[in-house]
Amino acid sequence: MPGIETARAVQQISSGHFVLTGDVRANTTAERQVLMIKTWPDGSIQWQSEFGGVLGDGGNAIRIAPNNGFVMAGFTASFGAGASDGYLLRTDATGISLSNFILGNVHSNLNNTCLPYNFGTNIPNYLVEIAGNKTYFGTTDANGNYFVPVEAGDYNVRLLNPSPIWLTCQDSVDITLTGVFDTATVDFSIYSQDPCPAMEVDLTTLGLRRCFQNVYSVNYRNLGSEAANPALVEVTFDPWLTVDSTSIPWVSNVGNTYTFDVGTVAPFAEGDFQAWVTVDCDSTVLGQTHCSEAHIFPNTFCFDPDPSWDGASVQLEATCTEDSVVFKVKNLGIGDMVEPQGFIVIEDQILQMQGEFQLGFGTDTLIALPANGSTFRMEADQSPGHPGNSQPCISVEGCGANPFSTGFVVDYPLNDADLFVDTDCRENIGSFDPNDKQGFPVGYGNLHFIEPGTDIEYLIRFQNTGTDTAFTVTVRDTLSLFLDPTSIEPGAASHPYRYELYGSGILKFTFDDIMLPDSNVNEPHSHGFVKFRAKQRQTNTPGMVIKNRAGIYFDFNTPVITNTVFHTLAENFILIDSVSSVQPGTAPQPGVRVYPNPFDETALFELENVQANHLVFSLFDMNGRQVRQQFFDKNKFQFQRDGLPSGVYFFQIAAPDRTVARGKVVLR
Fold it and tell me: Against a cut of 0.90, is the pTM above it?
């Protein structure tokens, strides 16, 4: 930049970059400002920042801080006693130092009022949004306090209340910060006029290794205004899991369903327990999916239902018989369905059936499909106005042929959007990367398609592979701009943690005194994990790609950066089987018949209701890679395997101006 620059200290970062400090003057008569520069490894400037006041300031030394930021020691005449005083300055990794602060306390009010001096309870883990030219976030600590460094400017401060049971005494507060070292205090009180427990549960495991013992963590908390007494947690484990032990005793056990009494859970209180399970060796295959579900009681909705609701409540069941997958759609509500609702059935990645149902109170209907080793998933609609966020769905994997298809259950969302229920579906594994990040649902196909508005649960796993015990583990996750920071729900973890949301959307999970042994000393106990849920921004549209990764810090070591998880937003991405999707009474539609299917060496493809020449047949593997292309002109052609490996493949038949058919074939 123009002017006079002086560098007095330099440090090299482990990445090869350099950071320098000194002072800068616009000209020979101007006062000095602290100068900080970060360069690329080749010496070119990456960023440059200036700090100080109206008098002379400068930097003499610089060090790298544990958060990958920087600490500068120097001198100042602008601050302090007015002479040349010591100046200690800390920045983040991008050279930003914030000296203005917004702080406050969040607490409940007693007697359902907002009267002053009616203090109730300090509230931890609540988010505060500070919106201005930049938006910052703060998280209340165990004493209900928050502390957020910000730039000078005008801000609107509001409490992000995760519970509809509680109301805020003030919606938001406008404040102005000027200059440097300015501080504003904004306290928030919340109250409730509807005494009701609002229970939340979360179920997570690090992973499910076949033939080994694994551990599930169950976390719960009360977001309501009344104690749950008692609170009961019912966990139904996958049939292929054997429960070895639990950290608290269960009060009842029916089959693979275990009920735990966690006692009285007061408002804002939380707790956790663990269950150790073994994945069966003899009757499972590598990659098979295991789904377990946690349900916490009381699970009542705290508000009166929508008057438009007809009282119907749909639940799904599925069974595997010798030759069929049978879905049962039940109305277990308190009234008859006043109008039909829709359903679909997906076979692996192909939409095979869609239709409607209308059920009276206490009745059901059955839908059966041939069992051929595919993964079948049913989705059904609830009646309009149904309480909560239920979206009924159920999957059946491994029914019929063997080997069977795997890897499809986790592609789609689960029916666990209500706080009081959580479902964990996980594919069993062999070895795995100990430090990684996963997103659920995984998403459809190799581009991981999900619909705009679909919530994403992220799981971050870590392992101490060093040579000594890790005393503190910190996980930092800078959220994608397409995720809504105000929607974050921290979930279950392997160890107790402190949760923060700060900056413009940086998540931080701190495991204090975790004492995580290194893998050479105690491999089973060297692992850990944490999970959180995030909603998408309402402005998201198809075509956007949500990417996220995390940094894992073991004490003060260089962070381990995880893989990048991504989801592509899209609509109508599920392939439709052109034969089964034809509705009665409609005009003949293009279709294709394949026989035999599954097949060994040869299959005949026969087009129906297609008038076209110069057709192209394309075959894709499970990862979306094209493995075969064939041209033909008649309405039927014979396909030769020619050495293709066994597995599930998707095909597309296209005319010059349109796609005429899609489907799936299985090579034995």
Answer: no
